[in-house]
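Sorry, any thoughts here?
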Amino acid sequence: MYRNLICFFAVVVLLGLSVGISGKMAAANQGNLDKDPNLVCWLKFDESSKKKTVAGSSKHRRKGTLKGSMSFVSGRIGNALKCDGSEGDYVEVTGYKGIAGTQARTVVAWIKTASNRGEIISWGLDDFGQMFNFIFNRSRGLGITPNGGYYYMNPRVDDDTWHHVAAVVKDAELPNLHDDVTLYYDGTLAEVQDIGLLDLWPIDTGSDLDVRIGRNYTGLIDDLRIYDRALSDEEIAALYKTE
């Protein structure tokens, strides 16, 4: 009996140590990701309600400008951007054209919405294959379209609770939605709906439009990041687990 008790307490201690180590590793990973040289745009949306600009928190200090009647409210981490669903209301990262061509990239954000329409973020050239839209596709799931084909996740994020969402485009000569894009839902790989791959175009993003955030979207957006590389599964999980 005593031997069994000793084994039981040993297992409990080991599990506790494992959880503690995992938490510290996740925090360390996020700390590295906060300082990652490939973090090219980071908007925390921690401004007060009267502000009309959003500070840039990456080393590039790319800031956003509010267009229309958007505002800031209490969010997932500090404050968040509140969007009212109007086409003319969005945040513009003036002078920043996003990640162009076929280059690898990652977009990450916390969102909270009860609607299944609108853009989380977009940039590019309004032509086939040359836009990069992280968007609710045809009022269905959240996903990516380059203006030619669409690739979206099955899990619903329009339940008016906070969700961590991410889209990754890996290195490829001509990246396409089916082979080279990965979607994440609350820190893990999202189940994906393949029906939207009709009229598939490669991702070859133009550099005409400035980065826009929240256009036609109703809800909250927090801690939005753009990396000009493909983050790993572990790195996405670290961003989800820590604050």
